[in-house]
Amino acid sequence: MNRRNLVWRLAGALLVGVAACTGLRQHRIPIPIAGQPPGPVELVLGLTGFALALAGMLLIINGPRLRDKWRGNMENNALSHRRDRVDRNRPVP
């Protein structure tokens, strides 16, 4: 494992840690009476924690490969748009 992999995996671990702190913060909110649906604050905190944990796990598992794929996709999209623009400017026979 090189330094680049380590940085991306540590960023993922940091996101998972922030998600855990979000979950701990959610437990400090007063629990509603049984049978009542959760309030908007609990829903937002829960979804935020889930999204952070999901992003963190993706970074821990895949590391910099995600960035390389995103960069490759952006370059391919730019090339295809450039090709389309050139094809549109060509006169139709």
Provide a quick synopsis of the model.
78% of the residues lie in helices and 0% in strands. The protein is mostly helical. Keywords: Membrane, Transmembrane, Transmembrane helix.
What does this molecule look like?
This protein is mainly alpha-helical and 93 residues long. The protein has one domain (3-89). The protein contains 3 helices and no strands. The chain has helices spanning 3-27, 40-62, 65-89. Helix 1 (3-27) runs antiparallel to helix 2. The longest helix has 25 residues, at 3-27. It is elongated, with a radius of gyration of 22 Å. The N and C termini lie far apart (56 Å).
Q: What fraction strand?
A: under 5%
Considering DSSP H and I runs of 4 or more, what fraction of the residues is helical?
over 70%
Determine the oligomeric state from the structure: single chain
Biggest pleated-sheet summary: none
Tell me the Rg in angstroms: 22 Å
The H-and-E topology, N to C, reads as: HHH
Total domains: 1
Say how many strands there are.
0
Mean pLDDT: 77
- Count of alpha/pi helices: 3
Rough outline: elongated
Provide the structure class: mainly alpha
Low-confidence segments, ≥5 residues, pLDDT <50?
Answer: none
Distance between the termini: 56 Å
Keywords: Membrane, Transmembrane, Transmembrane helix
Transmembrane segments: 41-61
